[in-house]
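Q: I'm writing a short explainer about ABC transporter domain-containing protein for a general audience and would like to include a description of its predicted shape. Could you first generate the structure from this sequence?
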Amino acid sequence: KQQKEIEQTRDLISRLGAGANSGRASSAEKKLERLQEEGQIEKPFQRKQMKIRFPERGRSGRSVVTIKNLEFGYEDELLFNRANLAIERGEKIAIIGPNGCGKSTLLKLIMRLEKPRGGEVILGEHNVLPNYFEQNQAEALDLDKTVLQTVEEVAEDWRIDDIKGLLGRCNFKADMLDRKVSLLSGGEKARLAFCKFMVKPSTLLILDEPTNHLDIPSKEMLEEAIREYSGTVITVSHDRYFIRQIVNRVVEVKDGHLQDYAGDYNYYLEKNLEARVKELEREADLEEKAPKLKAKSKMSKAEKEARKKQKMQAFQAAKQKSKGLKNSKRWK
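A: Of course. Here's the predicted structure. Afterward I'll give you a sentence or two in plain language.
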């Protein structure tokens, strides 16, 4: 009965919204508002989004990963030449560098999926429990299991409703939970592999391009979960925004060595002129390719021009500084 009255009132508003009847329409609108204020209209149910956290299995020892004089390569290609690195509990590290420099290989060496030619890669002795998300994670899923079974089998101390809530946040609707993995699309498999990764207990997260195939809400959920995680995180990612949100240390793979920057991604850009120039070029390129919005911007035309000019000046200054640094090295 209540719903019928609401529909009738709305219909009346739409029919009387113009001309001589606009006064009556206004009265009907006030009536609708009054009903809402009095709480006579039930508000639509809004499910409160559950917070997702990586389950932690206690606390690891202080030393998590130690790399000593690492040598590794494929055939004639040498990726690491006497590389060294020490990673301690609680650090959140981004491994960066150009394509093909050995970033993903380094993660495999840490996970002991590859053996070094020389040197050592040592996992800490006390309670270092890695949870590894690799780029082709979706390919390892059991095609005969259902969506729910896939996550449920690795989840410890998770209520079934919480598992369903996690799947729901990753766009798996209720009617998909009993669907076999073999029937999922490539993107759905990737999201399911991500959910499976999210429920496994650990003290060390190792992630290789984790944001590939994830939509924006899933990325935000991952960022929040990593920020709340008190264990150690090592990630390889081309997603610079993602890196900015989560890391407190950057390691660059360069010329077979591991160049350590004891600060976040902004600190890395401050200390590395070449990387700063590339970042400015990337931002300018993205801005150029971005679709023009039809809605009016809050910034005036003059403000936009001033901002563009500032960016170009910063870009030119960084470029000149980088050029000067290269020349000074050349004449040393």
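A: For your explainer, you could say: DSSP finds eleven helices and nine strands in the chain.
Q: Perfect, that's easy to follow.
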